Amino acid sequence: MAQKAQKVQKIQDGQNPYKRNRYTFGIGTIGRDALYTLVSMFLIYYFTSVAHVSTGELWWIVAIVTGWRVVDAVSDPLMGVIVDNTRSRWGKHKLWIAIGAVLSGIFTVLFFSDFGLKGAAAVVFFAVVYVFWSATYSLNDIAFWSYVPALTQDLKERENIGAKARIFALIGTFFVVAGITPITEALGKSTGGLQQGYFWFAVCVVALMWAGQLVTLFGVKEPKGVEEAQERTSIRDFFRAIFRNDQLLYITVAMGLFMIGYTTTTSFGIFYFQYVYGDKNMYSIFALILGLSQIASLVAFPWVAKYLKRKSIYLIATVLVVLGYGIFFVAPVGTMLFVGIAGVLIFVGQAGIQLLMLLFLADTVDYGHWKLGKRNDSVTFSLQPFIYKVASAAATGITGAVAAVTGLNHAPSNFLLTGGDLLLFKSAMFILPLLCILVGYLIYHFAFHIDEEEYAKIHADLVARGEIADTTEIVGTN
């Protein structure tokens, strides 16, 4: 094991020949996250307010999406095992990245294709397309994110790659969030209707995904010796890596609760501006401001981390989120000032928390290695998309149910929620998510104990045992 660590150490000393991976890997997230955002945040809105499916069809669509996302999420860690054990001339990650990107892109376009189907035929068609989309996107998703540990064994460089990937991912996310209303309306005017506008927008997003994935496939340079140093993962290793790593389990639950809250709120966003605020066009402006706020938060994170420990950063970020939710809930309808302030507070805090969660996952890789004697990078990182899919399933179920109960699927474009329906909507958008976020923070605060000092001890012990290289003196990686 010591010889393997020295082999990886040697290729990282001095000038870092893999510095470009920070960008060629990160650029690949732009289109991926744009595509995922389109499906996870706007598919229910599309069927509700654009395609105007019947209430019965809407309930079936919500049930299919919610149920299958849970099933698909449970299978994600097993995909980590499959990727980890794949051997091909293209490596174990790029093969699945390419296959998953091509197929999931095709199925994404089918979501927004109008074949004139109604009733049971429409539901069956949607179910088939959704199952295949979910499976093929998972192929890409797991292979893509489990690539991170294979790109470097230097934790600082890994954090650098991860942080830049999150920034690029936000660019893709907010391209869709900010652009979907004006772009689909513009495309709809020139192609014969809003449904056609959504179809061509989906085509554009898929093209963006494929372009970014090509940058990753041809631009990422894999360090020699890293994958050779990894042993195959057995089913026994899979269960040990997850269920005997207590810190991984705690942070998975905490991260899952946070993402359920955050994703539920964002899924209601376009509904809020159309049926509560009363001006759907303001959603794009609001989203653009929030996107810039998140990117600024991520850019500032390394500077803040020089002066504050992670536990303090998490607390401050959570306080910002809570304040934002409180202001958003009581903000006067139609007043952009308070809505904007609330949104900035929520999304600045959210961006910091999501990056912290990525770093916490990286810490649990070393903790699991130290505790169990085996490094399971792919299985550990496969829990990130698992968390996102569970959160997306919960958000879709909540959003779809509220839309169906309040009759938004057959409401006119100028309809505004009032009375009990408005209270139900705002409770689902703000109160329930806030409770999830607070419980997630409490689990982290009381159960997750890998802070900077604890991590330093774990790293030093692994180095002393000869199981990893001492990366504290590596130069040329900045």
Q: Give the mean pLDDT.
A: 84
According to CATH, the fold-level topology is: Growth Hormone, Chain: A
Structural class: mainly alpha
CATH architecture: Up-down Bundle
Based on CA inertia axes, which overall geometry fits?
Answer: globular
How many helices? 18
What is the percent of helical residues?
A: over 70%
> Could you state the CATH homologous superfamily?
MFS general substrate transporter like domains
Largest sheet: none
Tally of individual domains: 1
Radius of gyration: 22 Å
Number of strands: 0
Keywords:
478 residues, mainly alpha, Growth Hormone, Chain: A, disordered C terminus
Q: What does this entry look like structurally?
A:
With 478 residues, this protein is mainly alpha-helical. It has a single domain (20-219, 232-464), classed as MFS general substrate transporter like domains (Growth Hormone, Chain: A), CATH 1.20.1250. It has 18 helices and no strands. The protein has helices spanning 2-12, 21-50, 55-85, 94-111, 119-145, 147-151, 155-191, 194-219, 235-243, 246-267, 269-275, 282-305, 310-330, 336-372, 377-381, 383-405, 419-447, 452-464. The protein is globular and about 70 Å long. Residues 1-14, 225-229 and 473-478 have low confidence and may be disordered.
